[in-house]
């Protein structure tokens, strides 16, 4: 058994759970509803959901990997007394009227932080949520995907073969709609099961604080220099080639936006990095690179070559800095050299938080943000007291339940001293 009484992985109890016969869900209990794509039908849905009772199960399907951006191409809802609604947000981009009808209800989502941004875009914003995925993490479940949790907690087999399809397809095939309707059909039952488990572990109050924090989080701001997240950037070691990555990324982004395609379908990250490293001056030289073997890579060879040429012609003063200025601490890998005392504090804080997370049966990142631990360890309060650490945690956005559990342990760990140098230690 784990500390919370759940069967440990590999134990006879877990093996018996794995051997149980699962009921496969193939069809929603009320059948597959038609897709709502006109105002008149949407108004009927609004009236039905306003008259319904209890929580509202909410889900959204995007076309990640197919279309540009992360907008929703189908919104699914279900409520007792209202049934299931499948709504086309392309035909109906403003669903704020529906939001008004259910805003006071608890919205049940799985991995809410993934779906909320695209729901905000169509006018849907909850006040109260229950996130079954986040709740499962706090309860210590090792597999927290929707299908895995439905199997574990409800004994049902939920097919997920349509999770990565192109949801911008119109009309949507009936098997896809069936899949989408089933997702919200199980959510409230899963919510009840997760809630019961959190209650059993005395973690429900913690979970409700986490859910409130997710619901209150504003839509994410645009990233600064998003091109710096290109996979393989660690290979680019000078500012001129960094400029080539930027120019290629921005060219790809403009083409992807215009064609409404996922950027990776226009040009892969590997091709961007390869072109930035090679800096070819001709189209023939560019498309001869091994990574330039796709249709998009060759179709836009002129634009890619122009991007590289532009990067080569930039004045030194216009080149991007190798690294963005950071208000945070340096990477932990350099702490031992730069500040041995900070490195010792970080090691002690990490060990203490990992131990406590193990005792509580949850991932350490759900107990406290790793970034908060790093910042505290690098620059602790001038006086490391319970009040000072508590204030720093509050400023960092830690929730009350987290602060109550970790403050004393962090105070103790932050008092850790650097080990005395030995004769073999390198001298400064």
UniProtKB/TrEMBL annotation:
Q: Which residues form a coiled coil?
A: none
Question: Where in this protein does the record put region Disordered?
Answer: 315-334
What the entry lists under Gene3D superfamilies is as follows:
HRDC domain, Ribonuclease H-like superfamily/Ribonuclease H
Top-level division of the source organism's lineage: Bacteria
Q: What InterPro entries does the record point to?
A: 3'-5'_exonuclease_dom, Exo_C, HRDC-like_sf, HRDC_dom, HRDC_dom_sf, RNase_D-like, RNaseH-like_sf, RNaseH_sf
Q: Which Pfam families match?
A: DNA_pol_A_exo1 (PF01612), DNA_pol_A_exoN (PF18305), HRDC (PF00570)
HRDC domain sequence ranges: 238-318
* Annotated PANTHER family: RIBONUCLEASE D
- The protein in question is named Ribonuclease D
